[in-house]
């Protein structure tokens, strides 16, 4: 089957660049039916040498040391933004103005204002847009969504979600860009609370109001930079940490559910503990990214005496996306969330159908994040102002 | 070894009456070294027939249909209050005034005012006093306390605690006394949030301020009453539920730790899920009442590559209280928390040493509960006003 | 309700003496409906001082330094044998001949011959008899039995059971009586393999043939003795270990199921890991003593996509024995298996109905143990010769 | 970095063909440092149409409907055999004779004779050879190996390993080639017991003797064929199942360790439960393929009171192969075991160093499998005759 080539231009090349590139390359193997071939056309960054190495490692045919040239190129269909957060808006808007479809890492922007401008730009340009809340696309999460949408949990009472990490607990861990407000906007809030928030919005619905607190436990750190993944190296001197190490917030969903959220980089023993539990009138669900193939499900309607959480390995042919991979019990991993996400996006692109999560989701996520910050500052519940 | 008899007068006789009575009877078997024999002298209640049956079932020598006669009796050393909450204060104060030591179920009172009057009464009378936050006395929790006090976790960053139950999720479950504000003061808040709060105070320290929300999901229920344990039967008609089904709150501890608390009776699949996790600079701890013999512990100082939560069965001779029971790996259960609690209390009594948790703890717990209610109403963070 | 007194005479007083005594004392509290009161009449042993202390600690009214006097006493109804294994047969037979009902710890005897003589003696005397395979009486195990008997698993294909301990892994752990063939008959085989064998017989049926291996990893140990529970102290010199540290065997059940059994005292990290899994044509079950309140159950008939092991807390009113204790989610422990076992035995006694596991079970268990030893020696499959 | 192309010719194209093809394609992305590029040169099979589709799906440049032409082609460096077992020997020997390196799926052969001829052929030809016991290359298993080799467990006492599946429990599941002796040689034995055997040999050492039993629970099935993965479809009529549904065996390792092994396709609830536990004098390890990123480790030397199995997520940079993928806590899946396996093989190939598991491992594995069959038939322990 001849496939339509979709030429990707990526801006940025660190951890997320690796994850996206891999997904593009691996996509056709598992999504044979997708009438699209992603082509790694060009990658952009500022420093030529690491950029050249990234292009080679990831398999891009060319590179640009100025992202502006990338968005102007005629041979690019999609701009994929995996830069630090402070560059998202300018690139995305320029890309849209040049008629490119836009994929952007989360959080969509530094502020709601930025996010709104981005959304308006892609909508005005009529291009497709995607914000990379990839965890929605874990098969177990997709299956949870199906169960909830089918009414299997009934009215939702509770959402409790935590994103627990521990990679910066060492006070000598340096002040990398992810800890600098001017580059990243916020700390645990935008980096990981944004993920559990997106999962909650996806599964349960919109949030109406929040109360919150934020904390920076280690206020001064050695200067330094990311060395790849979540690793870092020091570079001399110290600086003030101006983003949150941890954030917690209470939420009221518009449908009446209560939410309790917590995101922290100071939960020792949790390398990447993105976990949630949802309780509804008919049952409950729980999930943890570190065991991402499993969904635990409880049904009140189970025979009395035989009620208990079932631990389900979501790798059977009838679980979402599972049939594309391996037989039941042969698990998949982190990277497959991106394959599924991009598989859905490209399908939407060729069919000209909108795919979620899009920039509208990015805006709404940002609105909640901003309400959380506002509530932490005002020491009061704050309504989420959607724009 | 001749033992001193401590004559118990108990007021109330439902689920908690059973748990306390059993512990008194079973105590000497496991606490051979304790120079005290609890004697089940008398039990008080209003309805003679169930009272007589309870006296026989629990092994009390006599009964009184008016608790006032009980507190006046010369042959009673300790008054143990296991009534609904609205009777705690009057009985405790009268008992103290008659020179009786006082054991009281939690929450100590309906209001901070009541709790303060109770504490003042026992202090003025110079009697011993105990509030039954029995979960402190699970061996794994005592062991957690020892680890924290020994500095094994270092500075505490996070406490997250949930008390998840599901026994009233059925909308047809009747409006028993535990759901009536005039009898119980509050719902999940005083009944189960009080427990996780006590564990947090015990393990981490005092709370300075809170933000909260409370919810009643099912607002009208059939009238009815408790039939024993957590069972109930309907008795015709319906009534308004005026207590909370669920409560969640954020907290700041005085030592800077962040707390996230949630208590609900609407978490399907959790019969009695009293669970917490604590993250400190050197490690983490987690525990769940339904697996109460286990403590999970993580240490940052473990050899790199070999770091992970250890699942420890706290039944070895060197674990607190464990040697009194069975060899390692032979687990104990819910009832043993009361044996340990009363063992500690009676030891304090004969040595005339204070034992925790006492009415001061009851007051402080109540102060936090009241701040939570206030914060839920004001929609703002509220300082906890300790009295 | 007036109850019939059943006067207990116990022979032996170590760990099992403590467990039995506690159960007798605690029984009426939870088994109110049982028309029997066990009375701790007398305890027998050889050394007066520890015997006197045991009598006091456990609550026996009197003691005898010769068990023969005990079995002759008119004021004893039941002889309970908790001695090392080499004394079981003589005491049990004498007790039966004096018309006493007999309770005996497991394994019933040192050899099949002994076991058969014991069974014949109690049958000839027409007394009630019980062998203390107490784990049958964990509520989760009783519930497993009910599910299997109700056909919920269908035809049974597989039983795999392990009893994993680690208390003698230290080569300096002394040569206590449990490691001496003349006192105990065998090592892991009779002590713990006997337990998983009994569970398998109870749940699945009789075993027809076995293949086996046995091993003694540490062949020489310091001399010493039990100090209580599973603790020990050295007493100078060394001796040869002539019992097995570990045993493994394959089995064919008469109904065609395959069995794989393993019992060892050299499985580091398992204090008391008595665990089994059973796979049938319609589903599976698994259980572990260290988490004894939980039963994991899998049903093929569950809706596709929602199939997984359910983790069931067997503490609900409809679980066997659970209603006697505490509300759902309030777990019980090791000691309660003895309460349930003795509750069943005394009920049978007053109703003059046989109760399992009895000496016939003890004989059958011993026949399998003997076949295992024979198969380990012959290096061939051996039929189990039931007698 | 210019890379040497290694041109792959694959024979067969079902489930394993997909897994291998994917690994070849994905290899360079994660093994940047590997100076080799696998090139999917040609694929061989008998039926042209499915073969053509497989070539397209997997990305092979050409195909051959006769594998003999494939092994004769000059433009092929490696022959990769993913056919049913009955074709392994002839293809592998022919490939070696044509000077091709050979990769072969497990079990290596139908019989020891075949396996020996295959090993002799590759040795005589001086080509590289690999048998695809891919589970050795799960990072957690490689880490277990490192711990054992470093003496962290000391002398090994016990290995217990199960491979539990449930895909043919339905009696109506058809008689696919994996259930036909003429095509596959044996059932659970060669298909899955071979895997746990290889893990045990890798981690603990060689096996000296075995006792065994084998069973076919469902003896007649509808005729049918594999439809991909572990799915199947019926094609009319029925046939006799002449391979084992389940096998269990006891083993003595040459180093004195006891082994207990079980492999079955009738363990309901286990889709792909390849699991083992190893107990040594200093500690224990356990692992399960369905949670393959985790290794549970117990050390006796841990501080008393703090001893327990640690659950370690083997995704940190210092865990074997983990750094190639994602940051800590971002798990990998089944397919990555093949990437690691092939990465090691190609590294060995370019450095001309032997890499394990090779055909010698295949022979030894087959020798144990044959001893197991012999022992099941003889109903006696049988020595493993290595050839």
UniProtKB/TrEMBL annotation, chains A, B, C, D:
Supply the InterPro entries for this chain. Answer: Gfo/Idh/MocA-like_OxRdtase_N, Gfo/Idh/MocA_oxidrdct_glycsds, GFO_IDH_MocA-like_dom, NAD(P)-bd_dom_sf
Pfam families according to UniProt: GFO_IDH_MocA (PF01408), GFO_IDH_MocA_C3 (PF22725)
Q: Which residues form the Gfo/Idh/MocA-like oxidoreductase N-terminal domain?
A: 6-128
Domain GFO/IDH/MocA-like oxidoreductase: residue ranges: 142-286
Top-rank taxon: Bacteria
Q: Can you name one GO molecular function term for this protein?
A: nucleotide binding
What are the entry keywords? Oxidoreductase
Instruction: Indicate the transmembrane segments per the record.
Output: none
UniProt-recorded name of the protein: Oxidoreductase domain protein
Taxonomically, what lineage is the organism? Answer: Bacteria, Bacillati, Bacillota, Bacilli, Bacillales
